[in-house]
Write a structure and sequence with these properties.
5-stranded mixed beta sheet; single chain; 2 domains; 5 helices; Immunoglobulin-like; about 230 residues; alpha+beta
Length: about 230
């Protein structure tokens, strides 16, 4: 009987030993996972950042909600904004108003074609983002009736949107034109503006293919560039 008790004691001590080893291993695994999770936890800046899809010059950037491509870039010292009217009888067009807009920097007139992946969306927010991350919003000196940037982007066909930026020439090297889809949270955006903008899709379209292309663009700055209302 005594021998049986001693055997039971050794068996119990063995089970306790392996149970302690197992619990220790689990604790180490949990600790390692916690350290790993802490290392890769996104900060507020990461959580608020949009989902950016980059595309080379002339290539298509495909996001989850829309696709976009930079079609044309013109750099000009001034803009000539024309308002015209067409006679219903003769079908002839006359200039009703002409406005010249100048700048000490340059105007970058970009034409972007876009299509929606599903429901119609609006890409009326655009920036010129420099190589070092500085962002220039589209100028408010050109009325949207001249750019048509507020037209809806729909599924099934491509539409052209024009965005005009007023920037120093040095900003063009390595720059991208960035367009973003608005939040789809509707009423919540009215109550808490920008609160639900996390992870919105945006397309970053390279302005030029390389530094040589940027130099050619700046060597070909137009004294004036004409834009017609509604076209």
């Amino acid at each position: 009987m005594a021998e049986h008790l001693e055997g039971s004691g050794r068996s119990t001590r063995g089970r306790r030993f392996w149970r302690s080893m197992r619990n220790g291993a689990i604790a180490l695994a949990i600790g390692a996972a916690a350290v790993y999770a802490h290392t890769f936890t996104m900060d507020k800046g990461d959580l608020d950042a949009p989902l950016t899809t980059q595309a080379a010059a002339g290539a298509v950037a495909e996001t989850g909600r829309f696709s976009a491509r930079l079609e044309k870039v013109v750099v000009a010292r001034s803009l000539r904004l024309l308002t015209t009217e067409t006679s219903p009888d003769t079908r002839s067009t006359t200039i009703r108003k002409s406005t010249s807009v100048g700048t000490k920097d340059v105007f970058v007139v970009t034409t972007i074609s876009a299509t929606s992946r599903g429901d119609p969306t609006w890409l009326n927010q655009a920036w010129l983002r420099t190589a070092d991350g500085v962002e220039y919003a589209a100028t408010d000196r050109v009325d949207p009736t001249f750019t048509l940037a507020q037209r809806p982007v729909q599924n099934g066909w491509w539409v052209n949107l024009v965005f005009v930026f007023e920037v120093p020439p040095k900003a063009l090297r390595g720059a991208s034109v960035v367009v973003s889809a608005p939040s789809s949270n509707a009423i919540y955006d009215q109550i808490y503006p920008n609160r639900y903008n996390q992870l919105l899709p945006e397309a970053a379209l390279a302005l030029t293919a390389d530094d040589a292309a940027t130099r050619r663009l700046l060597d070909n700055v137009k004294p004036s560039w004409q834009m017609t209302e509604g076209q």
